[in-house]
Amino acid sequence: MEQKNNTLLIYTLLYFAFLYIPVLFLPIFSFNDANYMSFPLSGFTTEHYEEMWAKTNLHKALWASIKVGVVASVVSTTIALFAAKAFARYKFRGQNISYGAIMIPFLIPEIILAVAILVIWLSLGFKLGLVPVTLGHILFCTPFAMLILIARIEGFDFSLEEASRDLGENAWGTFYRVSLPLYLPGIIASLLLSFIISFDEFVLAFFLTGSDATLPMYMWAQMRFIQKLPHVLALGAVIIVFTTFIVLLAFWLRNLGQGKEKAEFGIKIHE
Amino acid sequence: MNDSFIQINGISKHFGNVKAVDDVSFQIKEGEFFSLLGPSGCGKTTLLRLLAGFEYPTSGNLLLDGSDITALPPDKRPTNMVFQNYAIFPHINVEKNVQFGLRKLGLTNDEIIKRVKDVLSLVKLEGYEERYSSQLSGGQRQRVALARALVRQPKVLLLDEPLGALDKKLRDEMQLELRTLQKEIGITFVFVTHDQQEAISMSDRVAVMSEGKIQQMSSPNELYKNPQNIFVSDFIGETNFLKAKTESKDGEYINVNIEDLGSFKIKNNLNINENASDVICSVRPETMMIDKEKSDWDICLEGKIKQTSYLGEMTKFYVETKEIEKIITVSSQYFDNQSFQDGKCFISINLNDISLLNKK
Known about the structure:
The structure holds 2 protein chains of 2 kinds. Chain A is mainly alpha-helical. Chain A has helices at residues 2-30, 47-54, 56-89, 95-103, 110-123, 130-153, 159-166, 171-200, 203-208, 215-222, 229-255, 262-265. Chain A has one domain (55-265): MetI-like fold (Orthogonal Bundle), CATH 1.10.3720. In chain A, helix 2 (47-54) packs across helix 11 (229-255) and helix 8 packs antiparallel against helix 11 (229-255). In chain B, 22% of the residues lie in helices and 36% in strands. Chain B is built from 8 helices and 20 strands.
């Protein structure tokens, strides 16, 4: 019995090591006083971070990524909210097929999606830039948003909405006073995760950005020059910390209020 | 009082091929405690939801206090509902739950405060204003649901099996309380339940439903004493069914030949014809007598007790007789099993206690 537990523990530790050791190298080398990623470490410095901060191109790329991420997450979460509500609330003909149809972008290789959008976009005579990237990201984020929102809305007691109608609220009042506050943790989780997915996305951006680089595109461009590597490491370390924080926050929010403490955790927005 | 306060005129509701409610018409009186009773799937909840406006009828119309409400959405109807699972909003406290429906009524702040206070005292929930649903017991949630609906002073209160989730003792208490409350405030209650005892003990009138149709609508007493068909007789209380054939009509009476027992003259409540049709005689267990000795009642059969179940206030005996193939259920306050030697007994029936039903 005891031995079995140890085996499992070792397995678990190995698993986490496999997941996180490569990622840990990034922050370590970002503080290393050298232009190369190699051991032994040659001294501590924050120089790379200062260098990173000074790059105006990076600021531009960051701003582009934020714009794309905000629009993509808001639009995909909105679409997914309506769809998730329909899937959780009603049984309708073609339900499984439409569910599959929404989830497929999640499974199609991104490069195929990217090429497809590129071909259509150019053949329609539009210019490349942040707009097609945003559209691509909406397509790509919607299945993620759906998964999160369906998990939240499934098991939702729809008699609460009926009770609200019964107590004199119309459909909008019911949405605002009952559904929205109860879905809100899921909605915020979906916004955060969609934003992060868009923020980190490379393949679609690579094909569709044209000259307006997003942050991953900027990093990719910088890595062609060895002397620019250290500040990309610094940037990478910052992004890892930021992403981890957002993802943890999103998961915490998604599970919020699904346990016993539902009432205490409910979010009061209409008061 | 208005005898046709709620008018249900030829209401049908179909879900695909299923006729959940099948051409139902009846009226509910103002201030009445009215129950819709039936097994699950009989259409009683659908009918209630049609009244609330959560469903719209396939055909027919609904009138409430003289005005047609058939096409009104739930928020425009002067009805309020107590949900089966109470549907207390989990993100707001008891006070906010009760206030929820007052926002659109155009009341002043003082009026809102007064109404909430009054209704919370009516349902005995003073001091619970700050609690959330998760901090309340089942019975308290039920009171919140009641308060939240009553605070709007609806013309009709709709209750969807509100006592189903409570344990037996609390359920009995709430039955009595609901009944008292309804008499006190005088609002028309339409109460849905599958529990015949609940319906009988609380209601002024009961509609027994099965397969989307009303089987019988009458006072609880009438329902028990004079069931109109086998379904009602079987569903309300417990009974023994004996097969019989009609012979000849005799005024209010009819001669029937009860299988294995012979001919008897029985009151013909349902005005059954005499043309040798198959009928069913229903005899309630508590109308029969079980004894060690023979009696001079209209029918007296010798039998053997196969099994007994002791219920506290009475004992049920399952008796096998020579004449009747089926085991007869008799209940009695007087005897326990020890009174009978080797289970030998006599069961006696008065013809007055037999009700005649059409065989379907």
